[in-house]
């Protein structure tokens, strides 16, 4: 049975105790599952709350079916693909999976920042005051057609003074809070849960893809100083911004590496498989000195095996791919400027995802975004197969970190029947306050 609430509370890992966690990345080009053991370690530096080291026990991935741009398009095909990948991971780990964390990259993923204040009348800040101000945020943010994925308090203020991390016990007249809320369309999430239920799997939590990518790739003090992470996926490109150690913004657009492949196939009149091979092996978004002389063989659609392949200069591929990449980066830049996030992210961008391995992409990104750019790879996971150490697996690795930091946010528990789509995700605010402070 599909749960009414999409934001089921994920039980955080206990300090000093080991725990098993299973994560599933459902993408448009591949599906990946990891079963890992989280063992205690000294707290990390990149984000507070990193208390455990992830050790991979079972790993598997395969081609995605029945999924387009993160949306389920064929239940039977998607079920078969998920069963196959999860089954391989179970055999590798020697365990049976019953529940897991799954990512969300579609459903018009978006984020907003809500602010609210309550009067203290000069007394000390108590948990009930926090509950009041958070309830005020809740009343402004809930929508019938959308569900909250993440809700992170990114800063408290007391009498107009910002930068307060924990206001409890402090005295003042007005208590304020800023909350970053990431949401997605409920129906697209329910279809994902339906596929997993048909596989006899339960959803422990949904996680926004850009949040997971950021957790996997950030190093040192990037999250504190301000950074933007761009995940170039197969059919979607997601964006997240971190500041002061918290996710403050998330967004996605329905354009990814597949759109570049389709453009190569269309302009050169080759098959999609050949276009993907050309993109992977020969394409660069920056022209080289010998590209005019370097010839690339192509086999037009409908050509027989006896026909000699046509040859084109590598610059032809660059002229096709570069405008596509620049369009994606320009869309992301314009959205960040419109929302004010270009100032929040500081001077640094991190590129990850399978599409980020395109030759010359960091250099083009520096020109379009006018920021420092580096490529991000998943970090901090032991016994990860070599094939999974590339940027294409950042999302699934980031989901292994989520149980360690989920206690920093507040989301609802399972909604009772009759609540419908309202999803009062502060209904159990007392539980959150008790577990978080």
UniProtKB/TrEMBL annotation:
An example Gene Ontology CC term for this record: cell division site
Function: Cell division protein that is involved in the assembly of the Z ring. May serve as a membrane anchor for the Z ring.
CDD domains: ASKHA_NBD_FtsA
Keyword Calcium listed: no
Listed InterPro entries: ATPase_NBD, Cell_div_FtsA, FtsA/MreB, SHS2_FtsA
Keyword set, alphabetical order: Cell cycle, Cell division, Cell membrane, Membrane
Family according to the record: Belongs to the FtsA/MreB family.
Single Gene Ontology BP annotation: FtsZ-dependent cytokinesis
Subunit comment: Self-interacts. Interacts with FtsZ.
Annotated source species: Maritalea mobilis
Top-level taxonomic group: Bacteria
Major subcellular site: membrane
Protein name: Cell division protein FtsA
Residue ranges of domain SHS2 in the record: 21-217
Location of this chain's protein in the cell: Cell membrane
Membrane topology term: Peripheral membrane protein
């Amino acid at each position: 049975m599909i749960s009414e609430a999409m934001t089921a509370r994920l039980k955080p890992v206990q300090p000093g105790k080991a725990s098993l966690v299973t994560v599933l990345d459902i993408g448009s080009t591949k599906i990946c599952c990891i079963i890992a053991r989280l063992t205690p370690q000294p707290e990390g530096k990149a984000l507070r709350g990193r208390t455990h080291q992830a050790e991979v026990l079972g790993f598997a991935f395969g081609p995605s079916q029945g999924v387009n741009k993160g949306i389920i398009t064929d239940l039977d095909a998607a079920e078969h693909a998920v069963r196959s990948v999860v089954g391989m991971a179970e055999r590798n780990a020697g365990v049976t999976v019953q529940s897991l964390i799954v990512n969300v990259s579609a459903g018009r993923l978006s984020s907003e920042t809500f602010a609210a204040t309550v009067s203290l009348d000069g007394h000390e800040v108590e948990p009930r005051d926090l509950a009041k101000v958070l309830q005020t945020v809740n009343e402004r943010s809930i929508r019938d057609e959308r569900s909250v994925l993440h809700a992170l308090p990114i800063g408290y203020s007391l009498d107009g003074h910002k930068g307060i991390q924990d206001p409890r016990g402090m005295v003042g007249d007005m208590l304020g809070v800023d909350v970053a809320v990431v949401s997605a369309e409920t129906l697209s999430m329910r279809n994902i849960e339906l596929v997993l239920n048909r596989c006899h799997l339960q959803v422990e939590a949904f996680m926004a893809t850009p949040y997971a990518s950021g957790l996997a790739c950030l190093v040192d003090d990037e999250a504190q100083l301000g950074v933007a992470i761009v995940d170039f996926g197969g059919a979607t490109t997601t964006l997240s911004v971190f500041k002061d150690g918290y996710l403050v913004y998330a967004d996605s657009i329905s354009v990814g590496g597949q759109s570049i492949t389709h453009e190569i196939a269309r302009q050169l009149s080759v098959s999609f498989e050949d276009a993907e091979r050309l993109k992977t092996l020969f394409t660069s978004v920056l022209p080289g000195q010998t590209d005019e002389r370097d010839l690339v063989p192509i086999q037009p659609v409908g050509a027989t095996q006896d026909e000699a392949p046509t040859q084109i200069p590598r610059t032809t591929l660059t002229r096709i791919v570069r405008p596509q990449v620049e369009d994606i980066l320009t869309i992301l830049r314009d959205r960040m400027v419109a929302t004010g996030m270009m100032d929040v992210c500081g001077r640094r961008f991190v590129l990850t995802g399978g599409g980020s391995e395109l030759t010359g992409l960091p250099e083009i990104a520096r020109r379009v975004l006018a920021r420092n750019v580096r490529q991000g790879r998943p970090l901090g996971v032991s016994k990860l197969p070599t094939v999974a150490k590339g940027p294409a697996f950042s999302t699934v690795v980031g989901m292994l970190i989520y149980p360690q930091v989920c206690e920093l946010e507040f989301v609802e528990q399972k909604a009772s029947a009759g609540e419908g789509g309202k999803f009062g995700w502060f209904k159990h605010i007392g539980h959150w306050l008790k577990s978080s402070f």
